[in-house]
């Protein structure tokens, strides 16, 4: 390997501690109740980590699942994910707000949400049997200035949070919500798209009867999908959001829900415009969330991540992100 290449690589390695801020869901707000996420900085290191509604994962580097993992169980709910022990109640038609750590602006891409019926207790479900149907999606919102404005940018603008509406028509039952950001900053390379799936357990109550057909997690994506192998640094004539089509009653467009929750100019909390808004703005500590929020992981300045993607070769940016790969 020529010396100049070695120099580039060591420089990239030096950047890693600064760039290492992909992200995970720290908390979830449903009907004014706050639930702790699976707190990556602490829970994996505890002998008896708190029981939460979020699925556990060993993705302690805040990494991703790339295109080589689309057929692996890791794509379902992240690396070595195991079901959360708890479940949050929600009415059909209700909104789930997922709060992320600061998402890196350079990691543009769609935000998608799926449900899968556990047909029983989600805390003991076999994830390889879960069949997911899509209930929300937001892809390319504005491409007038590539790489454009994406669902991920909308998420950042909403205080790094995302609201997804549970379809009113869905039948009652226990479901896994699979919420995912797909970062496309390296997706011009085969297998370069990065999935950041996050799962939580929900018990949905309503009078609906819908039971939409689903897709196994390991069959959601192919690395040749138009929305997964794509160069976002050029003007696009359109964008096909990955995964199966939105189910009837699902929510397209930005914000993941078809209601006033998408307006964040007043509170920055998309989930707060319901009748429970008084509670939502002052999150109630549920029994599952009596743990202190960890101090946020160090956030990178905007420039290092963008300088990473302006490196001349796709190889270089791959190496950078490959450092967190499992
Ligand atoms: C979204 O909400 C508006 C206003 O309530 C309604 O007219 C429209 O049909 C809804 N669209 C979808 C896709 O549900
Ligand atoms: C959002 O809310 C602000 C202030 O509450 C209001 O002025 C604005 O018109 C709203 N925008 C939309 C799109 O509803
Ligand atoms: C932004 O989100 C954090 C949780 O991630 C929350 O604690 C904070 O109150 C939110 N800020 C606003 C202005 O809503
Ligand atoms: Cu990254």
Topology:
Layout: H1 3-19, E1 25-30, E2 33-36, E3 65-66, H2 74-77, E4 88-91, E5 95-100, E6 111-117, E7 131-138, E8 140-142, E9 149-150, H3 151-157, E10 161-165, E11 173-183, E12 194-205, E13 215-216, E14 246-251, H4 277-281, E15 284-285, H5 302-309, H6 314-322
Parallel strand pairs: 2-15, 4-12, 7-14
Antiparallel strand pairs: 1-2, 1-5, 3-12, 5-10, 6-7, 6-11, 7-13, 8-9, 11-12
The site of one 2-acetamido-2-deoxy-beta-D-glucopyranose (NAG) has 7 residues, from loops.
Residue fraction in strands: 15-25%
CATH class: Mainly Beta
Ligands bound, unique? 2-acetamido-2-deoxy-beta-D-glucopyranose, copper (II) ion
CATH topology: Coagulation Factor XIII, Chain A, domain 1
Helicity level? 10-25%
């Amino acid at each position: 390997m020529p010396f100049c290449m070695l120099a580039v690589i060591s420089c990239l390695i030096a950047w890693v501690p600064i760039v290492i801020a992909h992200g995970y869901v720290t908390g979830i707000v449903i009907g004014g109740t706050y639930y702790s996420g699976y707190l990556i900085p602490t829970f994996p290191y505890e002998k008896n980590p708190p029981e939460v509604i979020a699925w556990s994962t060993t993705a302690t580097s805040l990494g991703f699942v790339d295109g080589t993992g689309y057929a692996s169980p890791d794509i379902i709910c992240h690396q070595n994910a195991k079901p959360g022990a708890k479940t949050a109640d929600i009415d059909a038609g209700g909104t789930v707000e997922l709060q992320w750590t600061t998402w890196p602006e350079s990691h543009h891409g769609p935000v998608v949400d799926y449900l899968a019926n556990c047909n029983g207790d989600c805390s003991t479900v076999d994830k390889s049997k879960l069949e997911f149907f899509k209930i929300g999606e937001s892809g390319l919102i504005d491409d007038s200035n590539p790489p454009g404005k994406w669902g991920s940018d909308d998420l950042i603008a909403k205080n790094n949070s995302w609201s997804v509406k549970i379809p009113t028509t869905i039948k009652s039952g226990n479901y896994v919500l699979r919420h995912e950001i797909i970062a496309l900053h390296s997706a011009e390379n085969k297998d370069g798209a990065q999935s950041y799936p996050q799962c939580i357990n929900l018990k949905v109550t309503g009078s609906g009867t819908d039971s939409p057909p689903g897709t196994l997690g390991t069959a959601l994506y192919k690395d040749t999908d138009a929305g997964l192998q794509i160069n976002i640094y050029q003007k696009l004539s359109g964008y096909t959001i990955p995964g199966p089509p939105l189910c009837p009653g699902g929510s397209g467009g930005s914000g993941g829900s078809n209601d006033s929750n998408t307006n964040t100019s007043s509170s920055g909390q998309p989930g707060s415009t319901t009748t429970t808004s008084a509670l939502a703005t002052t999150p109630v500590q549920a029994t599952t969330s009596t743990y202190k929020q960890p101090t946020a992981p160090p956030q990178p300045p905007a420039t290092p991540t963008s300088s990473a993607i302006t490196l001349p070769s796709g190889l270089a940016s791959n190496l950078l992100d490959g450092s967190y790969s499992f």
